[in-house]
Amino acid sequence: MKFQSQFGSERTGIQLAPMIDIVFLLLIFFIVLWNYARFETEIDISVPAASSGENPQRTIGEIVVNVRKTGQIVVEGLTKTDPELLGMFRDIVAAYPDQAVILRGDREAAFDHIVRVLNVCQQAGIWNVSFATTPPEISTPPAK
Fold first, then answer.
1. What CATH number should be reported for the domain whose range is 40-131?
2. Across 49-60, average pLDDT
3. Phi, psi at residue 23, to the nearest 5°?
4. Cα–Cα distance between 24 and 34 in angstroms, integer?
5. Cα–Cα dist 21/52, whole Å
6. What is the pLDDT of residues 93-112, one digit of tens each?
7. Cα-flanking dihedrals φ and ψ of residue 22, to 5°?
8. Does the pTM of the predicted model rise above 0.85?
């Protein structure tokens, strides 16, 4: 019979199964996070340009409200009506009184649609509203 000594043991190799599990968990985490962030901002909305716009630090839990040029209100990929948006905002303000909202209005949207969303924010008690803009395009003068 072969007995192992109590002081010496066989060399064990690197355990790859736990490392592969961690890599797959990280991969799933980033895919889910990317998918969630994709719905935050509507791709087909082109916000107006402003030279004085800033790129402030994003805060955790801020709500991005997209207003399409047709007047549709989209929050997290879901189309909302004014009463639905008001109900959602009131529920959020009850839990978080200083809730931040970023309003992304399409540059071709009528001003009435933007004011409609601002009225809903005011009715819900949201005072921290920002407008999303893009930097203006720098046009180069034609060469002579």
1. 3.30.420.270
2. 64
3. -60, -45
4. 15
5. 47
6. 999 888 888 888 888 888 89
7. -65, -40
8. no
